[in-house]
Amino acid sequence: MINSYAEKPDFDKCIEAATDLLYQQDDLFTFNLDIRKLKYDRTIYFDSVQGYCVRVGVPIRRVMFGKNRLLKEGCTVKGDDFYLVLYNEDRRSFERQQWTMAHEIGHIYLEHEKDEDKEEAEAHCFTGQLFIPDYSLYRIVKDFNGACVSDIAEIFRVSNAAAQRRWNTFFRRKTVHTGKKDQAIWEMQREKVELYFYCKQNGLAFNREFFKYGKKRDLLKTADVISSFSELSNLFV
Asked: Which CATH number describes the domain made up of 9-131?
C-alpha cells in the first residue's frame, strides 16, 4: 500500500535548500539574478541545448522532437562528478531561461531521482524561493506601503505571471521563514528594494538609475564606506 502522505511535496525542504544557496552568495545586488553566475558547492555547467547538440554531434531533432525527446524547457545531464544544465535558447525571454535553469538547479539540490509531479512541484517551490525569497517578500509588503505584484516583478526581474503566483502563495501561507539566513538575504537585497521604491516615488526609470547607482556603489564599496542605499543616496543628493 502506497503511503500517499509520503508522496506529498516537502515544501519546507525546498525553501530551506534555496535559502541556503542564496545565503552562500557574496552579494545579491544585481539587476537580474543570473543563475549561471551563482556560487555553487558542486560542479555545474550550463549550455543551450542547441549549442550542446553542435558540440556532441547529436541531431537537434532527436533532442527536441518526438516521444523520446530530452528537452521541453530544460533538463539536467548528470555526469560522474558534475551536472550539465541545458536550456532552450529559442525561448527568447531572459527571465524564462533563467527560471528554467533555476528549476533544474532545484532538481539538483533537492537530489531528485525521478521527474514526477512531486518532484516538479518541489522544483517550482525551490525556484520561487530562489528568485523571490519568502522573508524578503514579507519585508516588502510590511515596509513599503502599496507594494503590488508589478513591483515584485520589476524588483526581482521575473514575469508578471511568476510574480503573481509567488504573491498568491505568500498570502496563502500562515507562516514566514524568519531565520538568521533569511534576514541576511534580506539585508543583501534591501538596498535594491529601497532604490526601486525611491525611483517609483520620484518618477525615475529604475533600470537606468540602478546602473548609475551601481557604479557609484562599486566605487564606495571598494573604499568600504557604504552599506545601504540610504547612506549612498545621502552622499549624492
From this structure: 1.10.10
